């Protein structure tokens, strides 16, 4: 009787696993999050070096004067754009690498309809957030760019979470909360940015790795 019951449980577990693979993108690697968090912290460190300050050392004015120059002879706006682009490229590159590696280990497809749905649902809030941030810069509201990126990124994760691991939903909610809090302290946007994109990615990536990947 016990053996028969065990067989039923194993069958149900297998059915659930098959249904999950067919409805959710489960190849997302926790190491991708850890790597993205490390790149974000390195980018934030470079920004503090450029500004000649330390985290929570002083409230930053965020004056984007096109004529001003700082370290490396770059204006603040150009430096932050280059810095952010580099962090994004590195995070995407390592994310693709670790996720592709995990999918191959599990014998799962890397690009299919689930991947497309995930990326589309992720991209829509991110694109809206990017346009909104450009509008903030145009109207001289650079201090709100960091909170806005965190909020829209959280919304993107929340929107895409129904096509991947449920844990991503909680990361999205966390990013939204940090972004809303950062909006009340605009002079410390860089610190909140490092917390949301850096530390939280490392924490959640580590959790995902030990929960789903350790021992594979």
Structure in words:
- The chain is mainly alpha-helical.
- The chain is 74% helix and 0% strand.
- It contains seven helices and no strands.
- Helix 2 (30-51) runs antiparallel to helix 7, helix 4 packs antiparallel against helix 5 and helix 5 runs antiparallel to helix 6.
- The model is unreliable at 10-23 (pLDDT under 50).
Helices and strands, in order, run as: HHHHHHH
Which outline best applies? Answer: globular
Number of strands: 0
Which percent band covers the strand fraction? under 5%
Put simply, the count of helices is 7
Helix/strand/pairing class, anyone?
A: mainly alpha
Q: Average pLDDT value?
A: 81
Largest sheet: none
- Proportion of helical residues: over 70%
Radius of gyration equals 20 Å
The N- and C-terminal alpha carbons lie at a distance of 32 Å
Instruction: Outline the low-pLDDT stretches.
Output: 10-23
